[in-house]
Amino acid sequence: MSEAEKIRVMIVDDVIDTRDQLEKLLFFEKDIEVVAKASNGREAIAFARHYRPQVILMDINMPDMDGIAATEAILTQDPGIQVIIMSVQGETDYIRRAMLAGAREFLIKPISADDLYRSIRHVAKLAAMRPVVAVAGGAAAGVAADGKPSVEGQIFAVFSPKGGVGVSSIAANLAIAIRQQTNKKVALVDGNVIFGDLSVILNLRADKTIVDIASRIEGLDRDLLNDVMATHPTQVKVLLAPPDPQRGEIVTADHIRAILEVLRQEYDYVVVDTPASFQDRSLAVLDLAQRIVTLMTLEMHCLRNVKLFLEVADLLNYPAEKVTLVLNKATNRTGIRADEVEKHLQRKLALQIGDAAQEMTLAINQGAPIVMAKPNHQVAKDIMNLVRELVAKANKEATAKSSAKSRSLFGSLFGGLIPRR
Fold it and tell me: What is the residue-level pLDDT of the chain in tens, covering all 421 positions?
């Protein structure tokens, strides 16, 4: 392998033994080359400009200038560099600060060799495949094709910080139920681009997927969306994930942001099946969503993860009303009551969806979501109730927003005609 093909890595840590240990771990990796080592943040900024690494291993806690400040400065001068933050701390605040600074991954010390190699190759691959994101050929945000102001659609992110709680199934049912109740234009996005399940749940063929948009992102417009999105029998338009995980890797958080921005100009409601992580793809969805439907089950490790997510949401300054807590697979057989959950989380549950494991599994296997196959089932009714609440709140907020704009316009037009006293 030529020098030009190697991944150029810089190590930044104030402890010399750590720098040397990391360099030794990388020495025998034929596709990785350590081009520089820095002992503090300021040195890292100067070295990044001189050595131009592709990937930086950045310690978060250093004297003089810490890894967060150094990361922000480095990415300002070269946004193409991929930063992996390292820390002995795994607390929420550390993860949140790293993400906000622009880091692509977060590793907790001591770092295993396998995790180190995987992270470096992963972020380097993303950087190599990442195109320049620009929305061309479509209407500008907030402006329809005829030049008149457009009403943006609502984005509902269905999310859980723990996998296996039914996010994909609820997202599919939710989108179909919204279509059934409102008869509005509804889009469903499989945001889990690595292991997406919506094609199976909805029995749709993945001839074209989100990868086809990511690879043509410069030409993203209404026509491209219509060409790629599958049409469900309920007339919900579905943007599917690729059938193989490797292809999904090329889809970045910037791609997802651009796609959602266009979708909410074209659809009244956009439902996103959101991956169970705090990585950049998930955060891109959560940031743009008007409502985060946060699912949980009555299991202690799930409740712990939800509590962690609520702390992250507060740190990211999400309004409290943005997060809608929903208890899925609700049952009285787990030894934990719903009121105990509310007390533990210090938040009210918006709704409970019943436990019907056999019926939900059958619905998935048949490719017919339960709101279609068994509309009179209690779980289907629970999902319909959730839709009513989400749509009612969305309409209320849209009305308030429209009234505020009208008052603002009136004031700007006639405010100068009102005499001051």
Answer: 566 689 999 999 999 999 999 999 999 899 999 999 999 999 999 999 999 999 999 999 998 899 999 999 998 888 889 999 999 876 666 777 777 778 888 888 889 999 999 999 988 887 765 544 444 444 444 444 444 344 679 999 999 988 889 999 999 999 999 999 998 999 999 999 988 989 999 998 878 999 999 988 888 888 899 899 999 988 999 999 998 888 888 898 889 999 999 999 999 999 999 998 877 888 889 999 999 999 998 888 888 889 988 988 888 889 999 999 999 888 776 667 878 888 888 889 989 999 888 888 888 888 888 988 888 899 999 999 999 999 998 888 777 766 665 555 555 554 544 444 3
Helical ranges in 229-269 per DSSP H: 245-248, 253-266
How far apart are the C-alpha atoms of 294 and 157, rounded to whole Å?
8
Closest by Cα among 225, 238, 236 to 196: 238
Nearest residue to 313 (alpha-carbon basis) of 190, 161, 192? 161
Question: Which tokens hold the place of 159?
Answer: 């999310």
How many other CB atoms are found less than 10 A from the CB of residue 140?
11
β-strand pairing of 323-330 with 291-296: parallel
Distance CA 366, CA 359 (A): 11
Does pTM surpass 0.85?
no
In the structure encoding, which two tokens stand for residue 281, read together? 């793809």
CA distance 378 to 376: 6
